[in-house]
Design brief:
single chain; alpha/beta; TIM Barrel; Rossmann fold; 2 domains; five-stranded parallel β-sheet; 24 helices; Protein meaA; MeMalonylCoA_mutase_a/b_cat; metal-binding; metal ion binding
């Protein structure tokens, strides 16, 4: 929600101050990302939103086996203090509002940021911004968790307690429902699961003893949310008004916060990337505008910060010009329209209020269900939350495939003129320099060689001892930063103490289609006849190599493959190519399907193909799904991959029919 009126428009009408405008950015290296940040700020962007690469998000250095092919692909690699110095070079952090999409390693990244800011002369109490630090949703959607749920919650609450006392203007946690919607959540689920997460965190802080009772209101008012806005912008407007009401109720009645200002819902938004299409991608522009309206039209539930995806994100990495276009959308709405000159235009609408009441009632019922289970963490560990999301996503996919839910240019109005925006697909997106990974490796080796390794060992030892106890881990983390430890070393110590964890996949329950209609029946018969010809039920291995934790697509493929009669082997995210090959051998599979959305397909897929050949499974076909540019798809097909599926292949049943054809061809049937 916005602040008080504080500026005029030149015509005597008072206006609200615009929200913070950001673009989600970062890639290749700290130096290249810094140049991008500075260009965006010069164009009128009013805050930074930092994207980190997957090794940084999951706590690995560039030389870890799981980091191969992932360095610099979906964000900037940050291994140590030197990288953060370069990332924010010539950007005064005392004056900047910086959002960091970081969760498992949030404590580490804020410690790096704080030390780098202090080197610039900034005091901790001058720093403003947000660390996402919402680990619960990582087990449900993005998959960038590093530690088991209880240990992760400890890190999150330690960071909250530290910042309230030491970095008071910082938002130490950004409860993130964005990725829940990406994973299939309905508006009711998005509201309920996000608020259940907030309750779990606040209960832990309240009961942990680190924050005095009279300071608990300070904790509550530093909690922010990061939400998703879909194209159904009336429903999204109602969702945010429901969010305001529900959050106010939780703060007042569960935590006794009497200051209305402290109970205010403070949220930023990234509008929906799930609905962006590869087919006719120019339609994404109007989708993004409609989604932006859902979180800006209602003054009483208006976002405090907005970042918009680019029109071509379903194709690959947006270029600076594409990001500028998205920024200009915000600027036109804020500075050219009269939106900010009026009170809430929905107040008094019986239609809006009825929908808000419906969402509030549904969310309260779901929150009560989660609390009865023991809270959000227990609901994660039991698999309930994940299975609910997979089921909702399966229902959404079925509506699109049946045509019940129209997606313009995908399942309706498919005839199109050639688009000048994508005349040359190879130049319609930005590619990451292949040398970025080797440069990061070289930088890492130089950093380790030049630091005081004894100081690093001592700092890591102090972190290890602190982790074994119950005290706050932030001071030990700051010591590691100043000594020169790396992201992988910090995380490695905590993995030693806390252990590893594999979250439930959500695909084992009964979440597929019921009946499924003629198309599924036809493919099911095809699977059955092929199984009979090969002398056993068809077995399909769905694999997620590397660090890409966006498993929504893989889960839906696994569910649909099971629906049509395959025996499905799906072990979840974060597997090495060697582990996938070993599973293919052990399960004697008929096909391997690899899902990669992080851009690392050209490095990881050939490793799996080569591994299968070395294991004597050269006749087992490999199919690939993900965001794969045409040139890469051609290269993969030329190197032995049997089929490549991209977001335009929305018909999962048809995809399964094609997989059966691939298996039949490989077996000369």
């Amino acid at each position: 929600m916005t602040t008080e009126k504080d500026r005029g428009d030149g015509a005597g009408k008072p206006s609200d101050r615009p929200w913070v405008m950001r673009t989600y950015a970062g890639h290749s290296s700290a130096a290249e990302s810094n140049a991008l940040f500075r260009r965006n700020l010069e164009k009128g962007q009013t805050g930074l939103s930092v994207a980190f690469d997957l090794p940084t998000q999951t706590g690995y250095d560039a030389d870890h086996p799981l980091a191969k092919g992932e360095v610099g692909k979906v964000g900037v690699p940050v291994a140590h203090l030197g990288d953060v110095r370069a990332l924010f070079d010539q950007i005064p952090l005392a004056q900047m509002n910086t959002s960091m999409t970081i969760n498992a390693t949030a404590m580490w990244l804020l410690a790096l940021y704080q030390v780098a800011a202090q080197e610039q002369g900034a005091l901790p109490d001058e720093l403003t911004g947000t660390t996402q630090n919402d680990i619960v949703k990582e087990y449900l959607s993005r998959g960038t968790y590093a530690f088991p749920p209880d240990a992760s919650l400890r890190l999150a609450t330690d960071l909250i307690a530290y910042t309230v006392s030491n970095v008071p203007k910082w938002n130490p946690i950004n409860i993130c429902s964005y990725h829940l919607q990406e994973a299939g959540a309905t508006p009711v689920q998005e509201l309920a699961f996000a608020l259940s997460t907030a309750i779990a965190v606040l209960d832990r802080v309240r009961d942990g003893g680190q924050v005095p009772a009279d300071k608990f209101g300070d904790v509550v008012q530093r909690i922010s949310f990061f939400v998703n806005a879909g194209v159904r912008f009336i429903e999204e407007t109602c969702k945010m008004r429901a969010f305001v009401r529900l959050w106010d109720d939780v703060c007042l009645n569960r935590y006794g916060v009497t200051d209305a200002k402290a109970r205010r819902l403070r949220y930023g938004v990234q509008v929906n990337s799930l609905g962006l299409t590869e087919a006719q991608p120019e339609n994404n522009v109007q989708r993004i505008v409609l989604e932006m309206l859902g979180v800006t039209l209602s003054k009483n539930a208006r976002a405090r910060a907005v970042q918009l995806p680019a029109w071509n994100e379903a194709l690959g990495l947006p270029r600076p010009w594409d990001q500028q276009w998205s920024l200009r959308m915000q600027q036109v709405l804020a500075y050219e329209s009269d939106l900010l000159e009026y009170e809430d235009i929905f107040d008094g609408s019986h239609v809006i209020e009825a929908k808000v009441d419906e969402l509030v009632a549904g969310a309260r019922e779901e929150i009560d269900r989660v609390q009865a289970m023991g809270g959000a963490v227990v609901a994660v560990e039991s698999g309930y939350l994940k299975q609910a999301l997979v089921a909702s996503h399966a229902e959404r996919r079925q509506r699109i495939e049946s045509g019940e839910q129209v997606v313009v240019g995908v399942n309706k109005f498919e005839n199109t003129e050639p688009s000048p925006l994508i005349e040359n697909l190879d130049t319609a997106i930005q590619t990451v320099d292949p040398a970025a990974e080797s440069a990061a490796l070289e930088s890492l080796l130089i950093w380790r060689a030049e630091r005081d390794n004894k100081a690093v060992e001592d700092a890591l030892a102090s972190l290890r001892e602190a982790a074994k106890g119950t005290g706050n881990l932030m001071n030990a983390t700051l010591r590691c930063v100043r000594a020169g430890a790396t992201t992988g070393e910090w995380s490695g110590v905590l993995r030693e103490v806390f252990g590893e964890y594999r979250a439930p996949t959500g695909v084992s329950g009964s979440v597929g289609t019921s009946g499924g209609g003629e198309a599924i029946a036809t493919v099911r018969a095809k699977v059955a006849s092929t199984s009979a010809e090969l002398g056993g039920r068809l077995r399909f291995l769905v694999g997620k190599p590397g660090l890409d934790g966006h498993s929504n697509g893989a889960e839906q493929v696994a569910v649909r493959a099971r629906d049509v009669g395959f025996e499905v082997i799906y072990q979840g995210i974060r597997l090495t190519p060697e582990q996938i090959v070993a599973a293919a051998v052990a399960e004697d599979v008929h096909c391997v399907g690899l899902s990669i959305l992080s851009g690392s397909h050209m490095e990881l897929v050939p490793q799996v193909v080569a591994g299968l050949c070395e294991a004597g499974l050269e006749d087992v076909p490999v199919v690939v799904g993900g965001i794969v540019p045409d040139a890469d798809a051609r290269a993969l097909l030329g190197s032995g991959v049997a089929a490549v599926y991209t977001p335009k292949d929305y018909d999962l049943t048809g995809m399964m029919a094609n997989v059966v054809d691939v298996i039949r061809a490989a077996n000369h049937l």
